[in-house]
């Protein structure tokens, strides 16, 4: 079967969309993703706790969609705290882990702290991430730790990796977000030290201008003005990133994390089709994978 027919008959098994890119109910978002050919979805806690039918109804909707859950997000400001603040965050983490398990997510995304109360001591950070991973381990959940480009102490991917490596837990790895790498202009050489087996999630997005000079600019762009890969001005950099990860041996999931105020005002099929075009560009134009290959970014036939 040729590639075009595979597109029509199959779905993108290793690509997913983030629900944040779409307007509407959880059910309509899931339907739009599935109709556009995606095989998985990245869920946020608000998708579950904000469902009008309650958590059980949200979980049922996810399972009925047929979409695999890429991961569950996002645990913020966990590491580096002390006393009652640390205890508070531990309780939040337990709830997040429980919800991740309920929807069938095998990955919980945690972002580097932005809290002014957080320590920057590497031993403290590693100890906290070790505790988080231990909480998740009995539930079969892996923790992907991501460096926010406006993080207080950790804001680049290699810094996140150093703490993950120091924590030394079997279910603790890193999450890589192209937006944050672009925003900090991080060299791809920073990935050379990372074990590809410890990359648990890759999130992809672009934006329309070349630089974000201040942390506030990074935050505003990240939360309102991202676009799908291939739509912004950093296509070459995203191509280089995805190619680099592929060469390293990464064969995990790619999720489009596109926060865009315009897209949440547009019809769901329109936005989902733009995401589909991005997936086609990456699969064929960047990774040049037009046929189903086990464990790779494949286009799989529906049963």
TrEMBL record:
The keyword S-adenosyl-L-methionine does not apply. It comes from the Bacteria. Keywords: Isomerase, Plasmid. It holds the Pfam family AP_endonuc_2. GO terms for molecular function: isomerase activity. Coiled coil: none annotated. Residues 32-270 form the Xylose isomerase-like TIM barrel domain. InterPro entries: IolE/XylAMocC-like, Xyl_isomerase-like_sf, Xyl_isomerase-like_TIM-brl. PANTHER family: HYDROXYPYRUVATE ISOMERASE (PTHR12110), XYLOSE ISOMERASE-LIKE TIM BARREL DOMAIN-CONTAINING PROTEIN (PTHR12110:SF21). This is Xylose isomerase. It comes from Vitreoscilla filiformis. The lineage of its organism: Bacteria, Pseudomonadati, Pseudomonadota, Betaproteobacteria, Neisseriales.
């Amino acid at each position: 079967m040729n590639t075009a027919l595979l597109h029509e008959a199959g779905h993108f098994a290793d690509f997913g969309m983030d629900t944040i890119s779409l307007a509407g109910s959880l059910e309509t978002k899931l339907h739009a993703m599935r109709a556009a050919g995606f095989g998985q979805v990245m869920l946020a806690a608000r998708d579950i706790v904000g469902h009008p039918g309650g958590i059980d109804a949200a979980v049922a909707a996810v399972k009925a969609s047929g979409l695999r859950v890429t991961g569950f997000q996002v645990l913020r400001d966990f590491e580096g705290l002390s006393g009652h603040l640390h205890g508070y965050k531990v309780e939040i983490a337990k709830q997040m882990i429980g919800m991740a398990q309920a929807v069938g997510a095998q990955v919980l995304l945690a972002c580097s702290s932005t809290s002014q109360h957080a320590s920057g001591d590497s031993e403290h950070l590693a100890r906290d991430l070790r505790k988080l991973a231990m909480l998740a381990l009995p539930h079969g959940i892996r923790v992907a730790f991501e460096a926010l480009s406006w993080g207080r102490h950790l804001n680049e991917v290699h810094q996140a990796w150093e703490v993950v490596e120091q924590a030394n837990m079997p279910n603790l790895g890193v999450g890589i977000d192209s937006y944050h790498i672009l925003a900090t202009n991080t060299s791809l050489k920073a990935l050379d030290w990372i074990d590809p087996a410890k990359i648990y999630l890759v999130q992809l997005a672009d934006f329309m201008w070349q630089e974000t000079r201040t942390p506030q600019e990074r935050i505003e762009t990240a939360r309102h003005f991202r676009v799908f890969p291939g739509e912004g001005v950093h296509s070459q950099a995203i191509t280089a990133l995805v190619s680099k990860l592929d060469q390293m041996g990464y064969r995990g999931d790619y999720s489009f994390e596109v926060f865009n105020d315009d897209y949440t005002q547009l019809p769901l099929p329109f936005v989902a089709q733009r995401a589909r075009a991005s997936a086609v560009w990456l699969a064929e134009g960047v990774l040049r994978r037009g046929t189903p290959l086990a464990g790779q970014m494949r286009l799989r036939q529906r049963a």
